[in-house]
Amino acid sequence: MNVFHEFKKIVAESLAEVSRRGGLSEDLDAQPFTVEAPKDPRRGDISTNVALAVSRLAGAPPRHIAERIVTELARHESVTRTDVAGPGFINIRLSDSFWRARLADVLNAGDTYGESGIGQGQRVNVEYVSANPTGPLHIGHARGGVFGDALAALLEKVGYEVTREYYVNDAGAQIVALADSIYHRYRALRGDNPGELPEGLYPGEYLNETAEQFARDGDKWLDAPRETRIESFGRRGSERMLAEIRKDLGDLGIRFDHFVHERDLHRDGTVASVIDALRKKGCVAEGILEPPKGKRPENWLPRKQTLFLSKNFGDDVDRPVTKSDGTWTYFASDIAYHHDKISRGYSELIDVWGADHGGYVKRMSAVVEALTDGDVALDVKLCQLVRVTRDGVPVKMSKRAGTFVTLREVLDEVGKDVLRFIMLTRRNDAPLDFDLSKVMEQSKDNPVFYVQYAHARSCSALRNARAAFDDVDLTAEALAKSDLTCLTDPGELALIKTLAAWPQSVETAAQAHEPHRLAFFLSELAAEFHAQWNKGNESPSLRFIVAENPSLSLARLALVRAVGFTIASGLRIFGVEPVDEMR
RNA sequence: GCGCCCGUAGCUCAGCUGGAUAGAGCAGCGGCCUUCUAAGCCGCUGGUCGCAGGUUCGAGUCCUGCCGGGCGCGCCA
User: N or C: which end of chain A has fewer CB within 10 A?
Assistant: First the structure.
């Protein structure tokens, strides 16, 4: 049960009743209002601003309306106390038995706890990573990948139908550069001294193997026409890089439902036809761009070119879709790609990009608006830089890639679960510090450890219970039927209330497209659980297992199990495996 | 020069789409181990939410203008 949804309905009914009897305006129920947990739990369990929200339209002071709503609410059986506070907030206290029943909700749901249907099966496309197949993934790609993957899982959890997608930029200048880079190594292998690696080619060692493959063909490529060379080297090189990228991502627990290749969009004419369609719609036309003010490019030549008229959709300038040599710009194929996504029938598109692509957001939103007349939403999530350090000292060089820290290096060192969790401990648009030493620390400074430890402890308590009590059924089903009225400690009831807030947290995180919120929730839940655990050190009567009182123990174990399920539920969204012990 | 993102405790950051007395961790100080794992817990100290206006019952949150930092700005992707 989502407690806040439940009470929103009840508050709305009370409001309707009040307005019906009191001759208040009819359509008060159209006003948006919130039902949430008050910041200070002493105020109550649930708080609503309904009276404040409705007061203007009702033409009555908020406190006055609140008083009348409160008398309606008080009829509800789980409501034990109501207050009107401050300017007109309504605070509601619910009975302990109501809360205890929520514990059974968790136990019945297991680690699916928090699932809901608010997405109503709407189809959402999440595109992420989409790194060029010209080199290995770096740590920034890992962030985008983990973020996108967790967001996809989060949306699925609340009832959206999600496609996880990767756009492969296997066309254009960078593939030519890739082909030339492999060719350079090939020549060296065949003894045809190529000299220094020219500017603009890829220096990393990772291309050597592909070059060796070609070298096995002998000298046949040395005199091959540049065109066929670019085709073969570029294709095989990008395919190989993509395979390696997919391996890295797979080991990080990231798999995609769908790959779209830029090359295909060119070859099957999608790019040309989409641009043509936009031209017919009046969104694409010939024009001459002004040079950017203040930046003064050196070789600026006013040139007539084909432009997407993104200014009509809120962009700062119109954007070219053709280069001076007549070929399509990257932007043109990205238009085609987004058209392709749209044609597959999504109600919402989410793109996860690096923050250095921020300047691209407006034009892409313009594209989606132009293509769908505003029917499909595009949300672009920008992931900020990851700073990798070891004991606070920046780690920069990679043996393999030359200039950056690769995903593989970090993954091999800290493991998938640590990498994934840490990536989700910050908002996507805030820079992230990733300290290789700190994330492996077993201390409360390390959120991965802290949350995992709470889960492990919940498992440990159950193991101990199995040893302490013979013939006791500790399955979730049995625990749900235990005598939960034994749970009377304020800490225990507070813990239940935290657990009961989980579905709402999942939902708001999903709607905001911000999985990091759940990392904070899990840390707070873990802290609360550790605190309750430690109370047992000081007062043995508060221990989860009280040998001489099995029914009390079972009720507490129900709570412990529910904490474990909720943490597991969150970790599963993150793609992190909950651990049962930490020895 | 223009656009986007960011500015919250000494440090690292939350702040649930406008709610009540702005929170957490670290650092500092003081407590708790014959233990259901002290790998942890409890308490204290710490704030002109970058600055100045505006919108309204109510602003860290929305609008405008400054200040400071990051990213980007045709023929790379």
Answer: C
